[in-house]
Specification:
Strand order of the largest sheet: 3-2-1-4-5
Oligomer: single chain
CATH class of the largest domain: Alpha Beta
Order of helices and strands: HHHHHHEEEHEHEHHEEHEEEEEEEHHEEH
CATH architecture of the largest domain: 2-Layer Sandwich
Distance between the termini: 103 Å
Strand content: 15-25%
Structural class: alpha+beta
Length: 459
């Protein structure tokens, strides 16, 4: 059985023209096994054991003992397992400890700072390093919250790097940024290197996930995962992260849009990043000169991942996406909608929170500032605007409107009895003693008392 890493490597080598025999010798597997995985007859990571795992009953004991004492020697623990009935060899025992990750890491014993490091050779065209950079306090009008994210990719040999802004670090945004960065760098290297991000591998074990293995096979690259707490293993991209944060993000103006920010980063990389001098065997050369010597493979069509972003419809029934605006029916003005894009497609879908598609438009070039409207949406918006139109005069006009008779009568009553509320002259009063009605305005409260006394007498 092939691991996902060997499966990805086999597809990458086959894409570069290696024969099945050569791949089998390189990976240490039978040719029939390699052919089965290349043909899709077998899937990496799917194999059921034909017999019970002999180490499984002892795994809990080992986990608890190593949690109590992370520095317990493996030989000491092996002696204890022998007394408990373990019958396998010591190398099998230690392999199980490593494969299951039973020994917890001790940060005090393995500090990341101050230890000696070695120089890692990076031949041309072999490795591209990727890493997410968290950017705090993005402009408020972006609507991205408290953080923005920048995926940075760097060619390990030449040091050339590019970055793509993203509002999320989920796998569709990662795949989209990977494709755009690879296109900006000029092509594919043999290997993509990542740290232990959950969208690429299982962080605890470093095993490539099934979903990202499909992405790597699509692009024909191998995937390399850095050991835990070894950030300097991908030091090229880590330095690019530091440069992007301090020399570009730190000086970005508040009024800059996302598309303008992306354009400014690309411009900075071309004018400043690519003109840096790097030492070579013959002296020094610029980054762009070294990058031109790297043998990079061609880029296929984007992997068909599905990208989802949430948006708020404007009062003009328009939805903004990547520097353009797309229309929706006018009844969805100021509502929350979701924009869906399948990478590589030429159209986008706009749907409600219940995933009901309400609009589909052709995809305009990113940052073009285009407004894409559907004819039906335009007509519906015009009808809604005309229905709300009225030819009634405004409430405040420049004309003379003096107090009328009712207002003058109320004013006279207020002058005759200051401090008392003016009665409403409109309704008529009824004499409860005689049962006759009159239009006389009752002001004296004694009249109300007499009327109430007569009503009680009648009862």
């Amino acid at each position: 059985m092939l691991t996902r890493e060997d499966d990805v490597d086999a597809h990458a080598l086959h894409r570069r023209g290696w024969t099945i025999s050569a791949i089998a010798r390189h990976l240490g597997h039978d040719r029939k096994t390699i052919r089965a995985y290349l043909n899709g007859d077998r899937v990496a990571g799917r194999r059921r054991r034909t017999e019970p795992d002999p180490f499984e009953p002892f795994a809990v004991y080992c986990r608890e003992r190593l949690a109590e004492d992370p520095h317990l020697w493996a030989t000491t623990l092996f002696d204890e397992l022998l007394e408990l009935g373990y019958q396998r060899s010591y190398p099998t025992f230690t392999r199980q400890l490593r494969a299951r990750g039973l020994r917890p890491a001790c940060e005090s014993c393995r500090p990341a700072k101050g230890r000696p490091v070695s120089v890692i050779e990076h031949p041309p065209g072999v490795e591209t390093q990727f890493d997410w950079l968290e950017l705090p306090d993005p402009p408020t009008h972006w609507g991205w919250g408290a953080k923005a994210f920048l995926l940075v990719g760097a060619l390990a040999h030449s040091g050339r790097w590019r970055g793509v802004l993203a509002e999320s670090t989920d796998q569709p945004h990662l795949i989209d940024a990977l494709h755009r960065i690879t296109a900006a760098l000029g092509g594919l290297t043999h290997t993509w290197r990542f740290d232990r991000m959950a969208t690429v591998c299982h962080p605890a074990s470093g095993v490539v996930t099934a979903s990202f293995a499909a992405v790597a096979k699509h692009y024909g690259v191998s995937v390399a995962i850095c050991p835990p707490r070894r950030g300097n293993r991908k030091g090229v991209v880590e330095k690019a992260n530091h440069t992007a944060a301090q020399r570009w993000w730190r000086t970005l103006a508040d009024e800059t849009s996302t598309e303008a920010a992306q354009a400014s980063l690309d411009r900075w990389c071309a004018l400043r990043g690519d003109t840096r001098l790097r030492p070579t065997g013959d002296g020094k050369a610029t980054v762009v000169t070294l990058a031109a010597t790297e043998p990079l493979a061609g880029l296929p069509a984007p992997f068909p991942a599905v990208l989802h972003v949430d948006r708020t419809v404007s009062a003009q029934a328009l939805v903004s996406f990547r520097g353009n605006h797309y229309s929706v029916p006018p009844e969805f003005a100021r509502a929350q909608v979701q924009v869906t894009l399948r990478l590589g497609a030429t159209s986008i879908d706009i749907s409600t929170a219940a995933r009901t598609v309400i609009a589909r438009h052709r995809l305009a070039p990113a940052g073009a500032g285009a407004t894409v409207r559907d004819t039906g949406h335009v007509l519906a918006l015009e009808r809604a605007a005309l229905a709300a139109f009225t030819d009634a005069p405004p409430h405040r006009r420049k004309q003379r409107i003096p107090p009328g008779p009712a207002a003058r009568a109320a004013a006279a009553t207020l002058r005759a009895h200051p401090g008392e509320p003016a009665p409403d002259p409109t309704p008529s009063t009824t004499d409860t003693t005689t049962g006759t009605g009159s239009n006389e305005v009752v002001v004296d409260l004694a009249r109300y008392a007499a009327a109430a006394q007569g009503r009680n007498t009648l009862r």
